[in-house]
Design brief:
- The structure is a single chain.
- About 10% of the residues have low confidence.
- With 1014 residues, the protein is of the alpha+beta class.
- Among the domains are: 307 residues, Rossmann fold, CATH 3.40.50.11780; 266 residues, no CATH class; 73 residues, no CATH class.
- It contains 19 helices and 47 strands.
- Helices cover 16% and strands 22% of the residues.
- A hairpin with a 4-residue loop joins β21 and β22.
Length: 1014
Amino acid sequence: MSVKRFKFVSPGVFINEIDNSFIPKSAEEIGPVVMGRARRGLAMQPVKVQSYSHFVEMFGDTVPGNGGGDVYRDGNYQSPMYGTYAAKAFLRSNVAPLTYVRLLGQQDSNPTTAGQAGWATQNNPAVAQASNGGAYGLFVFPSASTDGTAAGGANAGTGSLAAIWYLDESSGADIQLSGTVFNTHAGMGADGNTNPVSGGVGLLVEADSNKLFTVVISGTGSGEKIKFGFDDTKETFIRKRFNTNPQLTSTGGTLYPAPARKVYWLGETFEEQLRCGNPAANALTGSGTNLTTAALVGAILPLALSGTAGTGPQNVKNQPSREAVAGWFVAQDLGAAASFNPESMQKLFRLKGRGHGEWLHKNIKVSIQDIRTSTAAGYDYGTFSVVLRSISDSDNDVQVMERFDNCNLDPTSPNFVARKIGDQYLKWDTTQKRLRRYGEYANNSKFVYVEMNSDVEAGATDPLYLPFGYYGPPKWSDILNIGASDATRASSSATGGPYDGTGGLVSSAVWNNKSVYMSVYAMTGTVVSLAGNMGVGQTGAPLVTGSSNIGQISASLIFPTDRLRSSASDGGMSDPTNAYFGYQTSRDATSTRFDASTADAHRLLFADFPSDPTLGAIRATALKGCDGWGYVFTLDDIKKDALNIYTYESGSRKAENSVTSASYADLLDQGYNRFTAPLWGGFDGLNINLPDPLYNAGMTVGSSTERNSSIYYTYKRAIDTVADPEYLDMNLMAVPGLTNDDLTGHMINVAAERADTLAVIDLKDVYVPASEAYYSDKSDRLRTTPIQASNNLRDRRINSSYGCTFYPWVQTRDEGTGILLWVPPSVAMMGVLASSQAKTDLWFAPAGFNRGGLTEGAAGIPVTAVTERLTSKNRDTLYDARINPIASFPNTGIVVFGQKTLQDGQSALDRINVRRLVIYLKKQISILSTQILFEQNVQATWNRFKSLVEPFLANVKTNFGITDYRLILDESTTTPDLIDQNIMYAKIMIKPARAIEYIAIDFVIASTGASFDD
C-alpha cells in the first residue's frame, strides 16, 4: 500500500492492516464426458453433474436390464444402460464433475428409409393396400345404448376406444373379437345362410356375463385366445393378460428364443376413460356409464388415416425425438358473456420440454395457481404461479417438482414469466455440427422453457390478461352418427372389386367431412365388415347395400381425451378452494389414486405431427382425421350451484350462468384461482422393438452412415456435440458399450483434434450382451479371443496417444437390485481413473494393485468377475497390441494390468499416465495464461507469466508428476518480429515421471566362502 493512502497531519504512528493470506480460487476440476441412455433427463446436450446424487436427480439411477413389467407403458428397461454405471463409477470418488450426454434417437436431415428414426409396424395399413400389420382398436359400447331389435339394422350408440393392439407381421397375422355377435337375426350366418358367425373384425360382439371379452390372435408360429376385461383390480385386467413388450415381436432366435416370439403387443389402454364413461362423450363432465363394469358390446376396427400411406398410431417412423408441450394457456374473457367462445381467447404462452422426450408427458403436469389481479395503483398486470407437479400426485397431496411464483405477463418486469422460467432452447445446426442456443432468458427450469405469444411478448395485449385456461391435447377426430349413407358399399366381384374375399381391400368410409378414412381390410380367417355402418359381412361374400344377410348398424366412435375436474368437492377436498380445476389424473372423480392410463392419450399421434396444431392453416391441411385440440378448458366456465358448490360446466359462461358472468375477478375473489394442464406429444425417437435401440448390431462397419442409420447418426451427433474444446471442458471421453469401429475411431479423432482429452473405447465382439443377439449357449457370447482382438486392433492402424482400450468385460452387481450383469471395461475404467486421481494424482498410472485393484473397489462399483481369465501369454499378446489387460489372480483378485495408449511409436506418450499429465498441464497453463491475455507484450508481463506458471510446475514436480522442467520466456523466444505480430512465445520443457511397469531382479546364488562386501 502506498504511503500516499495515509493522511498525515500531526505526528504519530500510522498502521494499516493488509491481508495477503487469501487463497486464490482455483479453477474448477475438469472431468469426463460420458454418453449413453438413461431413465430420464435432458437429452442430446451436455449436462454437468457434481455428484452421483445429483446424477440420480437428473438422469435416474443405474439400469441393469431385464426390467420386465409393462414395457410399452412404463418404458424400455430391458437392456443395461452402461453409461449410468460409468457415471456412478466415476462420481463415487468425488474428484471432479462429470458431463453426461443422454442419447435419444435422431436422424439425418435427409435420411434414407433405413436411416429413419422411430418405429412402425410391418405393412402399415394404408388406403391403397391390405395388410396384416398395423393398429387395431377395440371400441366398447354399453349394451344399454345399443338397439338390436330391428332386423337388418340397429343403432349401436356411442363406442369408446378402449385399447389398441399393434400387429407386427408381414403376412398371416390375425386378430378377432370372438363371442356372441350382436344383432344377429334369422337367416344370417357365416355363409350367409345358417352357420353362425363367431367373431371377426368390424363385428359387434357381446361381452360375457362377467363383462369379459375374448380376443383371438394368431400368426406365424403363435396363437392366443385370451379372455379379459378392464377392471384393473382383477387378474383378468387387459394389461395383465396380453403381451405389452414390443420387443417380443422380433424374429425368434435373434433377440429372444424362438418360442417367445409374439406377432403383436398391447399398446395404449384407456381404462380411466372407460371407468368415467368417456368424458369425451359426456361433455367433459366425467359422468357416464362405468364401462369397466357395465354390460358391454365391443368391436375391433383397424386404425389408419388416409392421405399418407401408413399414417396412424402404428407409424411414428421418420420421427427423431421431440419434446412434450403444454397447450397454449389462454386469457380470461373480458367481453360480453353471451358471445364467449373459449377457442377465441387470447393465447398467452405455452411450455415446451427442454429435451426429455416422452418421459416428460408421462411424469409431469403443469398447474397455474394463485392467480391474482393487480393490487398496485396504476399497474394492471396481475400475478400467478407456474407449478410443475408429479403426474401421479393428487390435489389433496401436491408433489411439486418445480415452482415459479409471482410471475406476470409484463415484458418489462423482472417477474415476466419468460424471464422467471427461461425461454432459451438448443437446436442442432447440421451445417456447423454444433448446438446453437436461441432465446433471451436463461433457463431456470430443468424441465421446460417458455414460448411466448408474440403479441404478449411485445406488450401489445391487454395488461389485465391472466392465464385462465388452456388448449387440451390433440386427439383423433371422433366419428359421429355413422350410417349406411356414409359408405360406398362394394359390389359383387370375384377378383377385381374392392373386396374379393381373399384378403383384398374392402372399402373406406368418408367420415366427419374431413376426408378421413378408417380403412377396414380383409384378413386371413377373419370376418370382415365395413366400419361405416358396422355391417356384418363374411369372408367370400361381397358386402352389398340392402343384402338380406347383412345387419346394418349405425354408431358413433369416440376417441379418448382428458378427464376434467367436475366439482371442487371431487376427491373429498377438505378446502374446496384448494381444488385444481382442469386436467385430472386420479382414477375417477371420487378417488385420489393415480391412474396410469391417463398419459396414454397424450402420445404423439403420428410422425412429423405439427408443433402447433391449433393454427388454422395447419388444421386445414395437416390434421385430417385429427383435432388440433380435444377441448379448451377455462375457469370462465366455472359455475356455482344451489348448494354453493363450484363446478365446471363447458358453455356455462356463454349461457351467462357462470361465476365470471359479471367479472372474472368474482371467481378469484372466492379463492378459486388454480387449474392443471397436461403435457403431450413427447417422443424418444427410438425403436421400441429393440431391447437396446442403439445396439451395435444395428450398424455395419464401413457401410453405416449418418444418412442410412439412425443409430449411427445418433452416436455421431453426440460425439460431435462435444468436439469443440471452447464449448465444454473435459479430459476423458467414453461411450460405454459402443464397439462400432468407425464410431470409436471417430471418438479418438475428436479427442486428438481437441488435444485435451483421452478417449476410452471398447472393442467389438469381446462380449456380446443379450440385447445385441440371442445365443442358446452363453459361451457363444465370447466372440473373440485375445489373439483375434489384438489382430483386429492392429488392422485398424490406429496411432494416437489420445485413445486407450481394455480387455475383457467385467461383471458388476447392481447395488439397487442385486442383479449381476456384464459391463464393458470402459465402465470400470471410469471408476479406476477417478479413484486413482483421488488416491494420488491423475498422472499416476491407473493400474496395478495399488490403484487398479477392481476387487478392492478401485472401479467405484463392485466388480466380481471377468468374462475371460487371461493367462500370462494372453496378457503379453494384448499388451503388445496396446490393449490393456484386466487380469484375475487367484490370491489378489481382479486388477487392471496395463496402461498403454493407442500410440504405435514408442515415446513417453504411449502411457496413459503421461498423456493425462500432459493434458492436465496444457489445460491448466492455458487457463493461467488467460490472466495476461491482452496485456502489454513487455518484460514485466513475461515475468508475470513466469510467476504464474513456475510455481504450478514446481508443485507438479513436488507431487511426482514431472522430474524436472524448464520455462524459457525471453528475447530468444519472443523475438521482435513476434512482438510486432502481437505474439508472446514461451517454451516449457518437462521430463515426465515414468511408472514402473517391469521389475527386474537378479538373484545371485553365492558360494559359502563368498563375501557380500565384494
